[in-house]
Design goal:
Blueprint: H1 4-35, H2 38-64, H3 78-106, H4 117-144, H5 147-174, H6 180-207, H7 218-225, E1 229-240, E2 243-252, H8 258-275, E3 279-287
Parallel strand pairs: 2-3
Antiparallel strand pairs: 1-2
Helix pairs in contact: 1-2, 1-4, 2-3, 2-5, 2-6, 3-5, 3-6, 4-5, 5-6
């Protein structure tokens, strides 16, 4: 459904994101264990799920571009949406654990957090890496209209904020306020919940074939600017991954020759596809009866 160059570009940026997730997960886990920082450990677990999400995204963009076949007439693109929904469920489960540990420490369980140069370094490195990979993913998502890459970009953008919260918690902890680390962990959980629900809602909408948004007045513009088009009705749209599928009925002059009506249908398809990326349009032409 897309050319091989586009597919390779998406897979390459997904692979880079996967490598970054492996590096950050291991680094945060080691530093979190050595310093006993719940904030950093929560970030390590968060990064661990990022690793799972990045792996699913890499798999999803590979499968999503497999052409339609006899068993999948609309292609395999919905694997992107299924991947994003599964990612949401993983993140919400993580938030429950983070909140439980944070509340336990805030309500009296003694803990000691060792704040040192490594604590700050791992979070600062995390922010820098997440910034660069979220930009790369966002750029590639916009270029190829990939919902899987867009979800990853949004996810890692949220990671920047959650890491910043942990960094602030470490700074406050360094001045002797030990419970600030647990507060930071709670804020991380809250940020992840918000982002997860947003991603989950978008994925769910696509999986149940909720009609995607289309440009305002698109069909009125086509009717007014295309000679021979009398009316457009019974428009039906659905999404699958990066793609939009549209069906519509096109009314033309009943005396119009068949070949001319066929060319007119192609003209309408081209105008719609110029406004909506990766849109596959099926036009049914019928005579306009007053």
């Amino acid at each position: 459904m897309v050319n091989s160059t586009a597919s390779k570009e998406k897979q390459r940026v997904a692979l880079i994101s996967l490598m970054a997730a492996i590096f950050l997960t291991l680094t945060k886990l080691i530093v979190g264990i050595l310093t006993n920082s719940l904030g950093i450990l929560s970030e390590a677990l968060h990064s661990g799920l990022d690793l799972v999400a990045a792996l699913m995204t890499f798999f999803a963009v590979r499968v999503a571009d497999i052409p339609a076949d006899s068993d999948h007439h609309f292609g395999h693109a919905k694997i992107e949406n299924l991947s994003a929904l599964f990612e949401t469920l993983l993140l919400l489960i993580t938030c429950v654990w983070i909140a439980y540990e944070a509340i336990s420490r805030l309500t009296g369980r003694e803990h000691q957090v060792e704040v040192n140069i490594f604590s700050f370094a791992v979070i600062i490195v995390s922010i820098v890496v997440d910034y660069h990979r979220s930009r790369a993913l966002s750029k590639m998502a916009a270029k190829h209209n990939s919902q899987a890459l867009e979800a990853d970009a949004l996810h890692f953008s949220s990671d920047i904020w959650s890491s910043a919260v942990v960094l602030l918690g470490l700074i406050v902890t360094a001045f002797g306020y030990m419970k600030a680390d647990a507060v930071a962990a709670l804020l991380v959980a809250a940020i992840v919940v918000i982002i997860s629900l947003r991603l989950g809602k978008r994925s769910y909408d696509v999986l149940i074939d909720r009609a995607p948004l289309i440009p305002d007045n698109l069909f009125n513009e086509i009717i007014s600017s295309t000679e021979g088009v009398r009316a457009i009705h019974d428009v039906r749209t659905r999404s699958a991954g990066a793609y939009t599928f549209m069906e519509l009925n096109l009314h033309v002059d009943p005396m119009m020759p068949i070949f001319q009506a066929h060319e007119l249908a192609h003209s309408v398809q081209a105008k719609i596809q110029s406004k909506i990326k990766h849109c596959f349009v099926h036009v049914h032409t019928e005579p306009h009866l007053e």
